[in-house]
Design a protein that fits this description.
Layout: H1 5-17, H2 20-23, E1 25-29, H3 62-70, H4 74-88, H5 96-128, E2 131-136, E3 139-144, E4 153-157, E5 165-171, E6 177-182, H6 183-186, E7 188-195, H7 206-210, E8 214-219, E9 230-234, E10 241-245, E11 250-251, E12 256-258, E13 262-269, H8 275-278, H9 289-319, H10 335-338, H11 342-357, H12 364-382, E14 396-397, E15 411-414, E16 421-432, E17 435-439, E18 442-443, E19 446-447, E20 453-456, H13 462-477, E21 482-484, E22 487-489, E23 492-494, E24 496-497, E25 500-501, E26 504-506, H14 510-521, E27 525-530, E28 533-537, E29 543-552, E30 560-566, E31 572-578, H15 580-583, E32 587-589, H16 592-604, E33 608-617, H17 619-634, H18 639-650, E34 654-666, H19 670-679, E35 683-687, H20 692-701, E36 710-714, H21 716-721, H22 724-736, H23 740-744, E37 750-755, H24 756-763, H25 773-782, E38 786-790, H26 794-805, E39 813-817, H27 823-828, E40 831-835, H28 842-845, E41 849-851, H29 856-893, H30 907-917, H31 919-928, H32 934-939, H33 955-980, H34 994-1016, H35 1022-1044, H36 1058-1063, H37 1066-1093, H38 1097-1107, H39 1112-1115, ...
Parallel strand pairs: 15-35, 15-39, 32-34, 35-38, 36-37, 37-38, 39-40, 40-41
Antiparallel strand pairs: 1-8, 2-3, 2-4, 4-13, 5-11, 5-13, 6-7, 6-12, 8-9, 9-10, 14-41, 16-17, 16-34, 17-20, 18-19, 21-26, 22-23, 24-25, 27-28, 28-29, 29-30, 30-31, 31-33, 33-34
GO molecular function, one term: ATP hydrolysis activity
Organism: Knipowitschia caucasica (Caucasian dwarf goby)
GO cellular component, one term: recycling endosome
Length: 1157
């Protein structure tokens, strides 16, 4: 057979599967009109209606769906099994003891989730029932938004929001354009220009629009807001006319019409298929290190529970093996029960013991943790220090699940423009050939009076005058800036100055506005775009008109943009501006060396530079350009790639005109914030798309790099001189050389600079035998305190974050940025933070936390993060500890009751222990505790190191808390046992029964765990006092009521008068005091001994703060505390009089006034 297999495969694909071009496209009939006969088959497709559904549940599926989701949690499912076991078999405790706490947890969570979903339903209904105007049979009618269908023609007025995704057909403006703000989509308040279809823009009335006969072919819905590919076929009297459709023709749902009286547009995507709805997709669930520790502890306690049940089951049957110890007669076992197989009996007893000891698993801990995270997040949002008066914005918490992760950050990845810098561009200078032009001043975007220009170096001669004016014209024409004559805000008209209307420049890029305003300072003013003609006012106050023929838009890959214009003389020009790396390779003439030198000098000073070039086109060349662009734009498949290829072919043989320099200043306190992060032990990486020189200058200005920093370069320039393998090994030897400390100081400080191209080579899978470059690169990065990655694409930013996140140490990463290009790394990092900047709100919407300014990151991590971690780690350890103390006496009790599964505590105590008696004190502690004052944490960032690497939830700490719980349980049980042995306690000589014994142990238990928390509390407020002493009082009052009244709804009341009988006994009171003290003394002694012999930095600070009566941060250099605190303390005590020195106890000292976050 001679047929090629590729040909056969393409034929099979075409005739059996269908052309790929048509698989991912849809056909829309405008106005639901069938095309003319003979064109194509009229197949009315079915599309979803225009309902938006952001809710999770419906009335019918709420209960089953919510229950399914809740019981997917291991703890909930475990308690459900225990509850079912209690219902099925004869167990020692009532099913209420497990069912009530579980019911409480499930109900509270369901109510919270149901209420949140009801709010979502309410918001959905308000949107879906919103009225919209539709053109129907030549008239404008109204219908609800949810009833819109694909193919409807809608009529939208100024300041109305688009109800779905639309293709623009015509507008009230004669040039067929309209202005739109997309603030609800990406946060950008600037006005963007959209264009009507060329062949339909003349249809401006309802009747004319209704007469349009056309179909649209476009891609299926996809979430990219900035991409749309399609074409429209307009059926005229003759052959149908086909026009390309792109993102400039697509109006997105949620955007608002501005500065345009009205528009007509056809519905393309509806409901959940709109681009805005497709971007609702939930982010991947992030889990904190604390949550992972909780799950690990839960598994350990589950094994302890199973072991307890297994041991008791084995011991029971070993004890009953003797004939005299068989089941006693009063158990009233039937013969059938006695004759059951021993395996079945043993398994039943095992389950009964599991039920008896199941409270060692703290189900209420999950509810308390959720409440602590939710309520604790409000402290962050209420913090006045994180309010930006300029923006009027506070910090925003998008998810409270990661609060404690803010105290564990090891790597900070930050964007540069708009994050470290203000993204407020100021035109500094321009260089044309060898001449440099500096305008007098541009202040906040306003043109100062009497402005002219200063010329540095030599003035251009007459021959260079034309080049100079051509440069100014290029910058006045090569942009996408819009001119607004006046702006109305809250009814007040802006832009009227001394009775004359002045113009405002609006653009999605602050750089473009700065450049156009700079040209205005230098004598060339861009006036407007009218009827496809751009008008500029030259130095002689003459208006020049240029017909705008084509715009080759900017993209992050090309890093340049171009326009093709026709001058009044008929000459055709292509003006191009872009990054030096994308312009210089395309230049064939011009003063390249002089301009390049100036660009490099400006970049070193931290200025943002652009190069400007041009090319004259002949009529034939322009015709070829039009053909290339038309062919690429009409393609439905791979349109972006074809356009990029066309742009590359067009933007060649350029003549260099000059370069510009724009300054983007550092944000306030950005340098101080980075310095504090370094002192806190965090490694800061800057990931930016800027050129290396500009980014390096910013890093020095922000103190990311210091004068003593040894800069290592891993750039394309160096890899061109050496192989990548050699460069990596050279850098590796440099940072790992053993004699380095003697050469560069004891603590060597390295900084690494890498560019995007080299990073791609490093991350590329290596095919040779040179090994994996990623491991060497990671080893170099670990030994660098700061890393600068320049010329980075958005995807590369996420790759860098993922590379560090997945390294063998698994460090906690934080990414912070302000633009859409930062979203990928924000989603990838453990903690994502968005800055409310000028590049839109996409970063804010996709982040876990949002901050007004970069400087607020300091307090977010060093204070709030520190507190969050300390509080929740104590909460987790305390919950497991108090449940060990609770259940271990029950385990010991089985040795004294013949392993009969007799409970030690009353059913009510079992149920309410975690819900009522001990829940509020730890919740208040986890919300309010401040072991060190806010001012000290801000002043000494190194304290952040003391809580790093999840140190408070490591296994040794967990084992200590568990052993402490076992010790206290042993003391309580055996202390009460031996005190009661052969002793009468009541006045009438009666012995205490088993319920009195259990109640005594339980009373000591409640007082012990509550006092333990009180001793650990450093920061006392009235809330702490209320919940701690109030919980103890509530326990006593409840026990008196529960045992002092005969409750008619109870079948039996074994606790009647038990608590009052116990309190009537003097020895019982003494036992409670002695046993509580005996339980607490070892832990207190250990803490005192450790503080005296091996104090941590935190404990040193606490002691010093106590000596200075809570005002340590006001006048003490904290760095001295690390080395000489002991000597300073000793001398201070000797100098002060014995009677005058402060003798604060722990609670009193920590009760001194401090500022709560």
């Amino acid at each position: 057979m001679g047929m090629d297999f590729s040909t056969l495969r393409s034929l099979i694909t075409r005739y059996c599967v269908g052309e790929e071009t048509w698989v991912d496209s849809r056909t829309i009939y405008i106005g639901h009109k069938a095309p003319p006969p003979g064109t194509e088959a009229f197949i009315q497709q079915r599309y979803p209606d225009n309902r938006i559904t952001s809710s999770k549940y419906t009335f019918w599926n709420f209960v089953p769906k919510n229950m399914f989701e809740q019981f997917r949690r291991v703890a909930n499912f475990y308690f459900l099994i225990i509850f079912l076991v209690q219902l099925i078999i004869d167990t020692p405790t009532s099913p209420v003891t497990s069912g009530l706490p579980l019911f409480f947890v499930i109900t509270v969570t369901a109510i919270k989730q149901g209420y949140e979903d009801w709010l979502r339903h309410k918001a959905d209904n308000s949107i879906n029932k919103c009225p919209v105007h539709v053109v129907d049979n030549g008239r404008v009618t109204r219908k609800q938004s949810r009833n819109l269908r694909v193919g409807d023609v809608v009529f939208v007025k100024e300041d109305e929001t688009f109800p779905c995704d639309l293709v623009l057909l015509s507008t009230s403006r004669p040039d067929g354009t309209c202005f739109v703000t997309t603030a609800s989509l990406d946060g950008e308040s600037s006005h963007k220009t959209y264009y009507a279809v060329q062949d339909t823009k003349a249809y401006i009335t309802e009747e004319e629009v209704d007469s349009i006969h056309a179909t649209i072919e476009c891609e299926q819905p996809q979430p990219d807001l900035y991409k749309f590919v399609g074409r429209i076929h307009v059926y005229m009297d003759s052959e149908p006319v086909s026009r390309p459709l792109g993102s400039e023709n697509l109006l997105l749902r949620g955007a608002t019409l501005k500065n345009t009286e009205h528009i007509y547009a056809v519905v393309i995507y509806t409901g959940m298929e709109t681009k805005m709805a497709l971007n609702y997709q939930s982010k991947s669930q992030k889990r904190s290190a604390v949550e992972k520790s909780m799950n690990s502890y839960l598994v350990v306690y589950l094994f302890i529970l199973i072991s307890k049940a297994l041991v008791n089951t084995l011991l029971k049957y070993a004890w009953q093996a003797a004939p005299e110890r068989d089941e006693p007669w009063f158990n009233q076992r039937t013969e059938a029960e006695r004759q059951r197989h021993i395996v079945i009996r043993a398994f039943t007893d095992f389950l009964a013991f599991m039920v008896l000891f199941n409270y060692i698993i703290p189900v209420s801990m999950y509810v308390t943790v959720e409440m602590q995270k939710f309520l604790g997040s409000y402290f962050l949002m209420w913090d006045d220090d994180m309010l930006d008066p300029e923006l009027g914005e506070r910090a925003v918490v998008n998810t409270s699940d990661l609060n404690e992760e803010l105290g564990q950050v090891e790597y900070v990845f930050t964007d540069k423009t708009g994050t470290l810098t203000e993204n407020n561009m100021e035109f500094i200078e321009c260089c044309i050939g060898g001449s440099v032009y500096v305008p007098h001043a541009i202040c906040n975007g306003q043109v100062m009076s009497g402005a002219g220009m200063d010329m540095i170096d030599t003035s251009p001669g007459p021959s260079a005058r034309d080049q100079e004016e051509l440069f100014f014209r290029a910058l006045c024409l090569c942009h996408t800036v819009q001119v607004k004559e006046e702006e109305t805000v809250d009814g007040i008209k802006l832009g009227i100055h001394q009775g004359k209307s002045t113009s405002f420049y609006i653009s999605s890029s602050p750089d473009e506005v700065a450049l156009v305003e700079g040209m205005k300072k230098l004598g060339f003013t861009y006036l407007r775009l009218k009827d496809s003609h751009m008008e500029i006012l030259n130095r002689n106050d003459e208006i020049e008109r240029f017909e705008l023929l084509e715009v080759l838009t900017f993209d992050s890959v090309r890093r340049r943009m171009s326009v093709i214009v026709r001058a009044a003389s008929g000459e055709l020009f292509l003006f191009c501006k872009g990054a030096d790396s994308s312009i210089f390779p395309r230049v064939v003439s011009g003063k390249k060396d002089e301009v390049k030198a100036r660009v490099e000098r400006n970049a070193v000073e931290g200025l943002r530079t652009l190069c400007v070039a041009y090319r004259r086109l002949s009529a034939q060349q322009y015709a070829e350009v039009c053909g290339l662009l038309s062919e690429a734009r009409l393609a439905l498949q791979d349109r972006d790639k074809r356009l990029a290829d066309a742009y590359d072919r067009i933007e060649t043989e350029l003549i260099l005109l000059g370069a510009t320099a724009v300054e983007d200043r550092l944000q306030e306190k950005a340098a101080d914030t980075i310095e504090s992060l370094h002192k806190a032990g965090m490694k800061v990486w800057v990931l930016t798309g800027d050129k290396m020189e500009t980014a390096t200058a910013t890093c020095y200005a922000s103190k990311l790099f210091r004068r003593t920093t040894v800069i290592l370069e891993l750039t394309t320039k160096r890899t061109e001189e050496q192989s990548l393998h050699d460069v990596l090994f050279d850098l590796s030897r440099t940072v790992l050389r053993p004699d380095l400390s003697s050469d560069l100081g004891e603590f060597s400080d390295f900084g690494l600079i890498i560019d995007g191209a080299t990073l791609s080579a490093v991350l590329r899978p290596e095919e040779s035998n040179c090994g994996n470059y990623k491991d060497i690169f990671l080893e170099i990065c670990r030994n660098c305190s700061a890393v600068l990655c320049c010329r980075m694409a958005p995807l590369q930013k996420a790759q860098i974050v993922k590379l560090i996140k997945m390294s063998k140490e698994h460090p906690i990463t934080l990414a912070i940025g302000d633009g859409a290009n930062d979203v990928s790394m924000i989603l990838e990092a453990h903690v994502g933070i968005g800055i409310m900047g000028k590049e839109g709100r996409q970063a804010v919407r996709n982040s876990d936390y949002a901050l007004p300014k970069f400087k607020h990151l300091k307090k977010l991590l060093l204070v709030h993060g520190h507190y969050y971690y300390i509080r929740i780690s104590q909460l987790v350890q305390y919950f497991f500890y108090k449940n060990v103390v609770f259940m271990f006496p029950q385990f010991l009790y089985q040795f004294f009751c013949g392993f009969s599964q007799q409970p030690l505590y009353d059913t009510t105590y079992l149920t309410l222990y975690n819900i009522s008696f001990t829940s509020l004190p730890i919740l208040a502690y986890s919300l309010l505790e401040q072991h060190i004052s806010t001012d000290i944490l801000k002043k000494d960032p190194s304290l952040y190191r003391d809580i790093g690497r999840n140190c408070l939830l490591r296994w040794p700490t967990f084992v200590y808390w568990t052993l402490l719980g076992v010790y206290e349980a042993v003391v309580m049980f055996f202390g009460a046992y031996f005190l009661f042995d052969n002793t009468t306690f009541t006045s009438n000589g009666q012995m205490f029964g088993n319920w009195t014994f259990g109640t005594l142990v339980f009373t000591v238990l409640v007082f012990t765990v509550t006092f333990k928390l009180a001793l650990d509390t450093h920061y006392w407020t009235w809330i702490n006092h209320f919940v701690i002493w109030g919980s103890l009082l509530f326990y006593v009052v409840f026990s008196l009521l529960w045992g002092g009244i005969i409750w008619p709804f109870l079948n039996y009341q074994r606790m009647y008068y038990v608590f009052m009988q116990m309190l009537a006994s003097g020895p019982a009171w003494l036992s409670i005091i002695l046993l509580t003290t005996a339980c607490l003394v070892p832990d207190v002694a250990k803490s005192v001994l450790w503080r005296a012999l091996w104090p941590s930095t935190t404990e040193k600070i606490q002691l010093a703060d106590r000596l200075y009566q809570g005002h340590l941060a006001d006048f003490t250099p904290l760095t001295s505390l690390r080395s000489g605190l002991e000597q300073d303390q000793h001398s201070r005590w000797q100098q002060e009089d014995q009677h005058s020195r402060p003798t604060w106890c722990g609670p009193c000292a920590s009760a001194l006034p401090r500022t709560s976050p």
